[in-house]
Amino acid sequence: MDRRFAITRRARQTIETRIPVERAGLVGCYFNQRGRIAAEESLDELGALAEAAGAVVEHKVLQERPAPDPAFFIGKGKVEELAALVESDNLDLLVFDNELTPGQQRNLENKAGCKILDRTQLILDIFARRARTREGKLEVELAQLNYLLPRLAGKGTMLSRLGGGIGTRGPGETKLEMDRRRIRNRIALLRNDLLRVRMHRKLQRARRKGIPLPVVALVGYTNAGKSTLFNALTNASTVESSRLFATLDPLLRKVALPNGLEIVLSDTVGFVRKLPHEIVAAFRATLEEVREANLLLHVIDVSNPGWRDQADAVREVLTQLDVLKIPAIDVYNKIDLLPAGPDPAAASGRNRVLISARKGAGMDRLLERIAGALESFSMHVEIKIPYEKAGVIARIHEQGRISSQFYEDDGIRLEVELPKSAVRSLRRYLVRGQATQSPDSGSKLD
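-> structure tokens emitted (446 positions)
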């Protein structure tokens, strides 16, 4: 009996399967004294990224150099200091704020004796953890494999740790020992899958254009409050979090403006400084929602002391996407967190508005600004629909806003606010000499 009891006790022992929290050191480098403040801010952001990936930041190291060292990126003396720090404090990894070459990463691993990551791989790891849709997972895996491919040769400490941890999620757990040929084949398959996803999105957009509604896309720095604003405008319940990159997959909801015009609001992935080119390239399908938008809302966390640099980082990515020609409104969010009132540089103007998405302050003004920016999207027209074509009225109800409706001997006369594309399709029913436009729409029917 005692022996059976002992066997049962052993069989019920709890086995710890969670990946232990990794202790990290952060390393940054700047190349002139003027760049020190920006480097410190970037290193602080790197710390937030590391914590978002599940690490505990134990040390931050910053070095000034005239230029990056070809072999180690930082100086050899600093490498020795880091190796001693790793040994004395039992650090599991070092995260560099700059992108490392494969040779630099390999040399640092050999000297420091721990896992070495750079900013790009850390962001990719967070994306692998947060992606939920099939599209998002495909995009993350493609970006990871493109990053991994040139780094296969001579990988040591980092690739030997197949047990998990930061930098090994997603394809990192199962494909680290692939040869280049197999990885290239996998990349080709992923690109084909993403091509099908893009075609599917293209069809979805075509259906939306069948019922033409203007698309308004939220863009901004990560953690600027885009999801909170999205929820406030749509009464949705998407995830709101102070974590970086809480939203990766695009969300679409319909919103009615005060003037009755309906829009499609899109929430997209946030941007950061030094956003890896792999991310911008791989997330093209997701970011196409931005490229197809009629209006951009650039959400800026005005309570952050570095909001100007963050706004510049977003505009840099928008330049890469070639969308700066799309009209935009700067939405200065989190004004409730400002201790001494709004920054004069962020004061309301024609293309900017101050709000607090969480408190609801300024939301009515924002909706008015959106409606004003989209005035040229619609026209106020008078049309007459013959009774035998009365079914067209159902489509008009879907596409616009009817202000009056009269039944006459030869048909139904309507005054309606419609998108220009819908007006073109109903041109045959226009009452000649009666078509008008919304104020300041800037173009005529013909």
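Confidence is low (pLDDT under 50) at residues 154-163, 433-446.
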